[in-house]
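Hello again,

I reread your note about wanting to compare the complex against the isolated chains. To keep things tidy I'm splitting this into two emails, and this first one only covers the full assembly. Below are the input lines as submitted, including protein chains and any nucleic acid or small-molecule components. They are followed by the predicted structure of everything together. The single-chain runs will come separately.
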Amino acid sequence: MTQMAPSAALPVSRLIEAFNKLPGIGPKSAQRLTYYLLRAPHEEVQALAQAILEMKEKIVLCSICQNITDSDPCGICQDGQRDRSKICVVEEPLDILALERTGSYKGLYHVLHGVISPMDGIGPDELKVRELLARLKSPGEVQEVIMATNPNLEGEATAMYLTRLIAPLGARVTRLARGLPVGADLEYADDVTLTRALEGRQEV
Amino acid sequence: MTIPKVYKTSGIVLRQRRLGEADKILTIFTPNLGKLDAVAKGVRRPRSKLAGHVEPLTYTSFMLARGRELDIVTQAQTIEVFPTLREELERTGRALYAAELVDRFTPERQESVQVFRLFLETLRRLATEERLDITLRFFEMRLLGHLGYQPQTEECVVCGATLEPVTNGWSAESGGVLCPACARNAPMSRPLSVNALKMMRLFQKGDFAAATRVRTEPSLEADLERHLREYILYVLERDIRSTRFLETLRQTAGRSTPV
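Full-complex prediction:
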């Protein structure tokens, strides 16, 4: 049933190729998706094409927090209920979704769009660092900056570097706690995590 | 050499690349198998039991299974961690630079016991020593030596004359030090001070303790850095990316406060 891409009609093989470029989609999945769309109702295909284009055309970066948004400033930055004295610094827009799901943070965010990675040639200039510093310039408004970069080598390096720049501006800089994940097994924990967990232990 | 389906090796993680949804490809530098890539499954999930053991700059014991394209990490247990390399930015930046040099210079799957020992020693030093830049210069010179790119510092590379204690020339192109007469005819050569030449020789032949015992002016350290950087760039024919971050650090130095 499934034909090989090279012998398929040109528009078909072109779509297969396009799907194949997407993350996590191999040649077989690309073929399946293409043949599904080939048989799908015209409206469905049009809606999909429209959705993709609209996403690309209407999404911008929020001029304040650099999150992806369709309105500038974004919903969170506009929300009068949020605590404007706190900024939580994250690597990617997806990290905001994860933090918002907890419902326990009511402050603002700042998206760096990456992380300092010296071996890949990615330094502060390639990230939204200047934009973050600009938000901290007006004194007294932001009291706490929470470093929520990933607890790996590059995330730690980024947090340390930003702390160097932010501390002289007067805001308190904090880092998300590092320790044992819920549901984990102690025997599998690495030394660094266990040490951090011991350091950060709390009264029960 | 045939490698069995499942094999054990120790090694230092040089770098990680993201793969798919939750996996990473590790570049591991091992003493007996040299540099190799392996997949660590699920390490981007918080509950991964591998994640903490396969962070860059960790010395770890691995169990690897041969895969179709890439080998897969089945078990990992930390042998040695260097907490200060994660907690002090000046150390982090330099350790990553050393890791990048090893990554760029070593071929895949080729025994490199000497370079491995040098790299492990260097990480230990970068984690504890005060003189980080001298530590790096010592590492660079020894690395060049192990890889067969040892700069010639005893006699002039062009005419073979014994070098006098005067300002000589340094040329990456020629492969080392030039006597003043030859240096005049080599447009690409740079002046090499007597003290810089002494340090170069000490890096090559002395032990680490001797090299750190010498007091060096900042200007001499800057010269040594420039000379060796130039030499490495000439040999590698490629940019070393982490040097940019070291420059960035230098610009913000003195403003440090730990998290």
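For quick reference: Strands of chain A lie at 60-61, 68-69, 83-90, 107-111, 144-147, 172-175.

B.
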